[in-house]
Design a protein that fits this description.
Layout lengths: L4 H9 L6 E5 L6 H15 L7 E5 L11 H12 L7 E6 L7 E3 L5 E3 L1 H8 L5 E7 L2 H4 L3 H4 L4 E5 L5 H8 L3 H11 L11 H24 L4 H13 L4 E2 L1 H12 L5 H13 L3 E4 L1 E3 L4 E2 L4 E5 L2 H7 L7 H15 L3 E9 L6 E11 L2 E8 L5 H13 L5 E6 L6 E2 L5 E4 H5 L7
Length: about 425
């Protein structure tokens, strides 16, 4: 089992902080294992009694009754209310499956899981942890729903470092495997390529698409699938709902409304299947409304979506770097800088503007820089910033890392992903 220490340490750090710990992430990325196995084992090793860890898995039939928030709250209260000198831990899995109900005993008001969890966290002897795989189901503003008393810990599929800690072997071979199949944890137990491909495909057909359709009442599942295909084929490329609607109108021979596409794209983002990177004007310090870039949360899911037909390592590498930066907790934008050389007015792109509080770096992704033209193209946007923030080019065609004459750091992708160099 991959230990996933970065997430476990964050949970441990936030124990008994008076807030509900909300663990989010795409389904099957390992949230439940993190909470119900890794953190559970940690508590037992610290001497916590098993009967003081209350575990409720709302997607399991035996726990269906607790989808009623009032029933759940009353059950937990019977366990902790009379034992105020003893500490309890509450784990709830897939909390977004619960629904609002009418509290007949309190003037018939409507209550939700948030109301009940806010009530439960008032118990000083109870530490509350919940997981959820949809930002809409959990609310897009978790802090608001929990009245500013929630700690969110977002879990991603395995990073390359986590994957390699289990897979081992030749680093480049492991990188090739990771670039093709990604980091969904279940893959570690599968050895045959067909089994891996079948598993990733089944996640779409049996889980992700059904979840999005049922949760949002989607009527045009065909358009949803078309959007997923389009986004998969266009990772690292700029686009917007209007462009996608126009493309679908052309291929489907019917008018596809851009507002519908926009809504469906938001549902996909809410499910944590895809994330959006906004474009940022480095000089003007403002955000563009559109177009933006979209990246798959897991590169293996992206490849499976296209049935492995579109193997473009440059774009796939960029997607992996983007996910790695999010995994490390950074805020990431797509940078734009204007080139006015010789009277021109050309917008050039910096793949990633990475922010860590008051610190900032620029990162360019370049699978290879084997021609003068390619090198000039990759360096141009970085040199145009004319500031003193660190500038990095991540590459796959170099065996050692170095600074060039412009002070730009050239870094091997595997070294970056395995944490052998400091970004900041």
């Amino acid at each position: 089992m991959v230990k996933r220490d970065s997430y476990l340490n964050r949970i441990i750090h936030n124990m008994w902080n008076g807030e509900v710990k909300v663990i989010t992430g795409i389904r099957r990325c390992g949230k439940s294992v993190l909470l119900f196995e890794l953190f559970y084992e940690y508590l037992l090793l610290r001497g916590v009694q098993d009967d003081h860890i209350i575990k409720i898995e709302l997607d399991q039939r035996r726990y269906y009754k607790f989808r009623n928030p009032i029933t759940l709250c009353e059950y937990v209260e019977t366990l902790v209310a009379e034992k105020k000198s003893e500490k309890f831990y509450l784990f709830i899995d897939e909390v977004q499956l619960t629904t609002k109900v009418i509290d007949k005993e309190n003037a018939g008001i409507e209550v939700s899981i948030y109301d009940m969890l806010n009530e439960l966290k008032a118990y000083k002897n109870l530490d509350v942890y919940v997981t959820g795989s949809n930002s809409k189901g959990l609310s897009k503003d978790i802090a608001t729903e929990f009245r500013g008393r929630a700690t969110q810990i977002h879990v991603f599929p395995l990073s390359f470092e986590e994957f390699y800690s289990y897979a081992g072997g030749d680093e480049r071979s492991a990188m090739d495997t990771y670039m093709l199949y990604g980091g969904m944890p279940r893959l570690l137990a599968l050895t045959e390529e067909k089994d891996k491909k079948d598993y990733l495909s089944s996640l779409y057909s049996e889980l992700y698409i059904k979840d999005i359709v049922e949760r949002n009442g989607i009527e045009r599942e065909d358009i949803l699938n078309d959007i997923l295909d389009f986004l998969a084929s266009q990772i690292s490329s700029l686009t917007n709902p209007t462009n996608i609607a126009n493309a679908l109108t052309s291929t489907k021979h019917e008018k596809v409304n851009s507002a519908l596409v926009s809504n469906y794209m938001q549902y996909i983002i809410d499910s944590f299947l895809v994330s959006m990177a906004k474009r940022y004007d480095v000089k003007g310090r403002t955000y563009f409304k559109y177009p933006n870039k979209y990246y798959y949360t897991d590169i293996g899911l992206r490849n499976a979506r296209l049935n492995y037909r579109q193997y473009d390592p440059g774009h796939m590498m960029e997607n992996i770097i983007y996910n790695e930066l999010l995994y490390r907790g950074y805020s990431v934008d797509v940078g734009v800088v204007t080139d006015r050389t010789g009277g021109a007015n050309v917008q050039r792109e910096i793949d990633f503007v990475v922010n860590d509080a008051d610190k900032k770096i620029y990162i360019q992704s370049a699978f290879r820089m084997d021609t003068d033209r390619k090198e000039s193209s990759e360096l141009a946007s970085l040199t145009l910033t004319k500031d003193f923030f660190k500038k990095i080019i991540v590459r796959m065609d170099i065996s050692h890392n170095f600074y060039d004459d412009n002070g730009i750091f050239h870094c091997n992708l595997i070294d970056m992903l395995l944490g052998r160099m400091e970004l900041f």
